[in-house]
Amino acid sequence: MREIDGIEYYPSRLRWHVEQTLRGLYGAVLRDMRALPVVDEAELSALESTYGFLSQYYEQGAEDPERARIMRGIGTSLMRLLRANAAYIEGQELPWNSRSATIQTLRAYGHGEGALVPFIGVLRNEVEPFSQEYFDKLDQLFGLIWTSIDLSEAEEQALRSLLLVEESSQMVAQTIVGALFLGTMQYFDVRKMELLFALWQQHASVMVQGAALGALLILGKRHKEELLCLHPQFVEQVQIALVADEKQLMEALKVIQIAYKTTDNHKIFREKILPELRSISDKLQQVMGHSLTERIEELQNGSIDREKLEEVESLMAKAPDKFSMLKDTEQDVAYHMISELKAFPFFSKISHWFIPFDEHFPGLSKDNVAAFKKLLPMMLQGQRMISSDLYSYALVPTWEQIGSAMLSQMEGQMPSGSPTEITFVDGVKDFVFGAYRFYQLSSHANTLINPFDHSPEMISGAFLSSRCTLSEEGLLSLASIMVRFGQYAEAGHTYERVVHDYRTNTAEVWRGMAVASMMRNDDEQALEQLRRAVELEGKSEVTVRKIAQILIRLGRKVEAVEWITTGEGELGEGIGYQLPLQRATLLYELGRTEEALKAAYKADYVTDGKNLQSTLLLLELLLSLGKVEEAGRRLEGKELKGELLLWAGLVSIALGHRVEGLSQLRKWQEEGSLGAELGEKLSLLEHYGIEPWEEALIEDIIYRQVQ
After folding, report:
1. DSSP 8-class letter at 289
2. DSSP states along 351-374
3. Contacting residues for 5 by C-beta, under 8 A, at least 6 apart
4. Residue 493 CB neighbours (<10 A)
5. Which residues contact residue 140 at a Cβ distance below 8 angstroms, ignoring those fewer than 6 apart?
6. CA-CA distance, 373 to 72, in Å (whole number)?
7. Within 10 Å of residue 28's Cβ, how many Cβ atoms?
8. What was the pLDDT predicted at 419?
9. 3-state DSSP call for residue 533?
10. Do residues 392 and 344 lie in contact, with contact meaning Cβ atoms separated by under 8 Å?
11. Nearest Cα to 661, choosing from 675, 680, 677, 682?
12. Which of 315, 399, 652, 706 has its CA 20 to 30 A from that of 175?
């Protein structure tokens, strides 16, 4: 039986009821509903009556064109009753979680059940816009929306009027998008999702449109089962709109994939890049003044001596390669820098994680924000900063102190202008990246359902799971993005969707699927997929080599040798050195040394003896087969360094030139090679009368000399 996703978010005593309802087994659920803590006797009786008549008519063979709609209506009512029970149980068992705490705070302000509609009227008519009271009321409205369970029709109409008919400000609309999203992440609410759809389609602001679509796509994955089972007409409505504007859809999907990738990127930042940054910072403090003011003064006065400047330049020259990830404009790089700036009291209110930036927000110092804005072009470098991060930086109290000195130093070098005109993508980023910060960094999020804890595979959500919702080009583009972001399982599923939806049977698609399979260590699947690619386009050097690598990982080395041999024969003279080198290595591992030598000769010939890998293997094979004189001749004229020193030393000892050989081995070891490798290679000297005790002595001499 198909597993129903999302049931785990319900209290354990309700999961059976939810699963049965989403499977359409309403009779069993209705019989057990009265055992739950919240019971609406009148509604249950009406549902039982309706379901009884419907079942009876169906059993008698009667036809009713409205039967499917009536069934969905019963299921919708049951899920609403089950959510009411879930909310009650949550309040009893988790009285201090974020939702329960927010409800208690709202009650302290006098906002109980049914407060939403009159409260909207207060915000609209009785509060001066952008005053302290206005923002306090907006925060309370946010709380009333996200903590509500199933908006009533009147509540939905009041919000729709505020957001769309009267065209509320971008400030209000974007904030409400956050509330609708947060609430629906916790408990499914089709009316909240319908409002998000309307905001995407109808609101004048591209920031609001982008935010709404980003929210809608994530929620479509979170509530896939209920949407598809009970609200297929709404799903179809959204799908039609998505198909009509695939460009917007692809832009939104890419932003969502980036947000999911940020978790992996931040781990790399913390473990690899941050220690390097701290090391450079510590060294800079040793070279220059310890405070930023001191450093600026030294630069202004020219009081840093030449030696110090050279040391600073040397430190900074090492940074670009190590910190290239911080320059990747495709990723949410700002998160790494901002994650430590979310402890301000400002962020104690959930709504403040979603509210658009306003420099006049009460509590922000006007002079400090003005100083911050002057430095913003330098910080942005042509990019746009999301609202949540702008608040973080604007709350730092020292901009006035450091701003004038920095501006003086940067005079004439400050980037001019501001980022380009606001776009739909900016709206998606402002919401999705802001939501990511909330769920990762806010203490409120610990008791909430985090969408970023799960797979980033949006195409499996309710709005994108139907065939041909995305074009073939769109799916291929999305799969390519996922591979680039290291989301290999999701990339593989996306390539599979291309094949399923469009019956695509091209080598490109099969190769893409194979890459995704290899990266998630599914070698059997990758092997089959690459073979399908070969069937379609014939063999290439790359595919022959990749299939051989997979066969080797699967432990099928003999089969790999046969595959490479056949491939070399079919590809002819134009191939490079890699296939014969790969074959030679395999044959040597299999103990077929004479055959391996022939393959190594071929690899060395193709590269004219200039490829180090093939040269090293050839030397080892010659030494192992007693052909030390030829090995010596092949070393003549080569610059002896690195691994060549190892083999030169071994060849010299085998030829009886022990002193010269030991000197060469010592140089090789001084370059940092491992002693364990030396011991392994010394065993080849047994062919030349060097006994095991002598091998041990040579190794000990080389190791001891280095010490």
Report:
1. -
2. GGGTSPP-TT-TTS-HHHHHHHHH
3. 224, 225
4. 19
5. 106, 109, 111, 119
6. 54
7. 12
8. 60
9. helix
10. yes
11. 682
12. 399
pLDDT of 673 over the 90 cut: no
Tokens of residue 399, six digits: 């901009």
Tell me the pLDDT band of 234, cut-offs 50, 70 and 90: very high
Let me know: does 47 contact 71? Beta carbons within 8 Å: no
CB-based contacts of 218: which residues, under 8 Å, 6+ apart?
Answer: 181, 185, 256, 432, 435, 451, 458, 461
Percent of the chain past pLDDT 90, that is, above it, reads 53
Query: Which amino acid is residue 114, in one-letter code?
Result: G
pLDDT of residue 391: 93
* Cα 18 from Cα 21, distance rounded (Å): 5
Interval 71-111: pLDDT, tens: 999 999 999 999 999 999 999 998 889 999 999 999 998 89
Indicate if the pLDDT at residue 292 is higher than 90.
no
Question: Whose CA is closest to 341, among 295, 397, 281, 262?
Answer: 397
Give the separation between CA 685 and CA 666, rounded to whole angstroms.
17
Tell how far CA 72 is from the center of its chain.
Answer: 36
Which amino acid is residue 398, in one-letter code? T
CA 59/CA 310 separation, integer angstroms: 90
Q: Which residue has the tokens 């380009």?
A: 420
| pLDDT tens digits for range 415-457 | 555 566 899 999 999 999 999 999 999 999 889 999 998 888 8
CB 509 within 8 A of CB 536: no
- CA dist., res. 289 & res. 15, Å (int): 62
- Among 556, 496, 504, CA closest to 525: 496
Global confidence as pTM: 0.82
CA distance 348 to 343: 8
- Give every CB contact of residue 31 below 8 A, 6+ residues apart in sequence: none
| Range with the poorest average pLDDT among 335-339, 527-531, 618-622, 655-659 | 335-339
Cβ neighbors of 600 (< 8 A, separation 6 or more) are 580, 581, 584, 614, 617, 618, 621
| Alpha-carbon distances of 292 from 233, 302, 303, rounded to whole Å | 60, 15, 15
Nearest Cα residue to 600 out of 612, 615, 611, 589: 615
Q: CA-based Rg of the chain, rounded to a whole angstrom? A: 34
The amino acid sitting at 103 is I
| Mean pLDDT (whole number) for 650-669 | 90
Residue 28 phi, psi dihedral angles, 5° rounding: -65, -40
User: Residue 584: pLDDT above 80?
Assistant: yes
Position 647, amino acid: W
Q: Encoding tokens for residue 535?
A: 């069937």
